[in-house]
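Handoff note, outgoing to incoming analyst
You'll be picking up this chain. Sequence as last confirmed:
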Amino acid sequence: MNKNVFRNLSYGVYVVSTLDGERNTGCVANSIMQITSSPATIAVSMNHDNYTNSCIQASKRFAVSILSEASSPSLIGQFGFQSGKDTDKFEGIAYSVKEELPVLDDCCGYIICKVIDKMETSTHTVFLGEVLEGDNIGSTPAMTYAYYHNVVKGKSPKNAPTYIAEDDLSAKDISSKEADPAKEESSSRWVCGICGYVYEGGTPFEELPDTYTCPVCRQSKDKFVKK
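Most recent structure output, in case you need it:
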């Protein structure tokens, strides 16, 4: 099975936030959909291993910040590639409080929900949330997962429903990469070992700048591997 076909489904990129007691926490999600319009209800899929999952279970509420194409990629690194159990993910992040929950300022819209039901799978919890409040912010288009993958050139955190391991690349994907070796050799490629962001240099001998940091997860040069 070619798992890359799932990338053709429509996904957004969101930060789902909630409370750990009185402390703000949250994580990146891309599997969110509207279930009903009246009363307005949405479903959020959350991996069991995400600390945010247990916090939503306890608080019975969550907020969704909808990232836009102009949102800083570092938000995905901040909320998607570290655990809220031992990290204050909101440190240095601009946000507002809506219905007692944190909403990112750098987004194109938000939705506030109370949990009314849930469904368990072997790896994820699907929370059903009744919408309490929501609004658009600005006019920049929402970031889709396809945009994140193709333009931002990041990968999904390993707990995301859309995560695809490198070993799952299909033969078609591999052969397409090998189809034009001259193109591959025309530039240098550095891959972030934390989030998968790809930096492409102008020549095959160009080195990654010493001061370079990953625009997605903000890791330093030493976390990159030359391909």
